[in-house]
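Might you be able to consider the sequence and fold that I enclose below?
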Amino acid sequence: MGNSVENFRKLPSFLKMVEKVNVGSFTDLEVDEEKRFKYMFLAYGACITGYKFMRKVVCIDGTFLKGKYDGVLLVAIAQDGNHHQFPIAWGVVDKESSESWSWFLSRLKIIVEDDDELVIISDRHQGIINAVAFLYNRAHHMFCMWHMSQNIKGKSNKKKGAAELFIRVAKAYKESDFDSLYTELRERFPEVAKYLEDNTSPERWSRAKQTGNRYSIMTTNGVESINGRLHEERELPIIALLEALQRITSTWRSKYHQEAVASTTHLTPAIESIVRENFIVSRKYEVIEATEGKYCVYGSTSNELVDLQSKSFTCRKFDIDRIPCSHAIAAAYKANISVYEFCTDYYTTRYWLEAYTDPVYPVPGEWTVQEEILVLPPLVIPRRGRKKVKRIPSVGEYGRRR
């Protein structure tokens, strides 16, 4: 693995080799005026190409490194049509701040373009908020529901049920359900409602009120799971860390490619399972055609209007998730229309396979170190006590030290 100082010296040459071995890859490196390492960005060509077949929802987060020179690992991921995490880009920075997040996102923007359809999900780190607002003017920046629920625990003084009720509010599809549940939240936990109203808006964390479309992706748990997988790798020198990220990425891509090749269904296995469950529920409904293309769907707990022509349904589950809900399936069955016509291409096996067609290759064992760019390790201010090895809670999260 080499020592940490040697790893920084070899880093520019290693990144050049990544681009040479993996066509279409994009890397960047920045040092300070003393030639000390500040930032590094890496996106494999296969991941850049594969992102085209993902829903336009990108989760970003950072996790601290545990090596000799500390630092923070940044990651941007999407989610494939079978609900697997899809790493788009990695970054290593000296510290998490508005400046480092702006640098990382400015490089990510070359791959993930600013667009009205794009949704970026993160925790409420001020550096992320500032950087997204500056660089992604058209995209919708939304917050992780789970991190928000942890904030709620702290603001409610651990009152039982506050975080759970907030999650129900956040996950509501209909605005009427949101309003009813939020009224209950305000009555039972007024301090929580005040915190939410003073610090954020429902458009940032609620399904019902969202201005963009985050589909069913309500949290950054996918990033958290990747960070958890890297528990030991975060102790490695920087090149060894990047080689570990390559192995993990390559392993996942190979596994999911094989699964996609073996799949015989029109939709990915995860979505086919959801559609089948919704079909079973749909058989219990009574369906009446109100007018051409519009159907009234009567159930035991609610009645919904389904407009097959505009693909808009009053339950709003399909409108948001883009997966045929039980009401859509019931109406489609009545109209003798295939339910697959109401599913986005992002959930098809074809898109799933396309996302993993290209492999990610490792840098060969022997490569030439170019000396034209000098990179020194960052300065680290010694701290008393043992180095932190546990996750640091995000801003406002319950348990965070003030």
Summary: Residues 66 and 235 are 5 Å apart (CA to CA). The longest helix spans residues 238-262. The chain is about 40% helix and 15% strand.
